[in-house]
Amino acid sequence: MDLLATRLQAAGASQSAIDGVFAQHGLVRADAGANGEVTPLASSSNDIILGQPTIYYDEKKDAWLARATFAWRHNCSSAYYKSACEQKDCPLPIGSTAPCGGPDGFGLRVNHDVNEYLTHFYTYDVNGYQWTWSYPEAMNEYGASWTEQDSSTAQHAYNWDQGSLYYWFYLNGCTKGVPFKIYPEISHTWASTSVTGFSIFLGGFAITWSNDANHWQATAPGPTYWYPCG
């Protein structure tokens, strides 16, 4: 399901077309926020596209689902890779893969406590190959985050070219006319730097790194607004 949705996104499909894929799997779009990409804040080079988070009702799990996405812009030159900005930070692989600095991080948070249920995280290379990650850095009543190793492969592709984070939850109360706000956040590292922590709390994200150099973080300038109680 996510693989098809990600391919549609990469091909420039409309949000309604992507929502149609999810609807076939019992995921009904629930928010009425903005669709498509948002301009991130705090990226050193604006090389990242952050998708506007979307909310669905999962009929099979009888739970709510928040989805956040990112993708690298393919508008940078590279002598070795497929014209993707992030790959300028990656060495040529010796063997099957080569790490691009230390782990990167991606997270999603809600500004209201909920009852967390489940989280998934997928990344893709430029050829559409999928990585399924197993262990979140954090999952609590305010969201989920993942820190995983980005790398280049023998096919000269980058395994964090695109990514999708899923966070299932149950409501823990809401107020009519008061929105829930959903935010994405990403941190990229290179050289000797790693993301060493990625916490989520009511007021924001807390990211730590192995040193003060060779990293940046980016977030959306505004959230997705969702009114679960109308």
What's a concise summary of this model?
This protein has 230 residues and is mainly beta. The chain is built from 2 helices and 18 strands. The chain is 8% helix and 43% strand.
Mean model confidence by pLDDT = 85
The fraction of residues in strands falls at 35-45%
Tell me the major beta sheet: 8 strands, antiparallel
CATH architecture: Sandwich
What is the H/E order?
Answer: HHEEEEEEEEEEEEEEEEEE
Determine the fraction of residues in helical runs and give it as a percent range: under 10%
* CATH topology description: Immunoglobulin-like
- Under CATH at level 1, the class stands as Mainly Beta
Outline type = globular
Q: How many strands?
A: 18
Structural domain tally: 1
Which stretches of 5+ consecutive residues score pLDDT under 50? 77-84
**Tally of contiguous helical segments:** 2
Helix/strand-derived class? mainly beta
Distance between the termini: 29 Å
Provide the gyration radius in Å. Answer: 17 Å
Keywords:
230 residues, Immunoglobulin-like, 18 strands, 43% strand, mainly beta, eight-stranded antiparallel beta sheet
Outline the secondary-structure elements.
Layout (H helix, E strand, L loop, with lengths): L1 H9 L4 H9 L3 E3 L7 E2 L9 E4 L2 E5 L4 E10 L24 E3 L4 E7 L4 E10 L5 E4 L4 E3 L2 E6 L2 E3 L8 E9 L9 E10 L5 E7 L2 E6 L5 E5 L4 E3 L4
Antiparallel strand pairs: 1-4, 2-3, 3-5, 4-5, 5-13, 6-12, 7-11, 7-14, 8-9, 8-13, 10-11, 14-17, 14-18, 15-16
Helix pairs in contact: 1-2
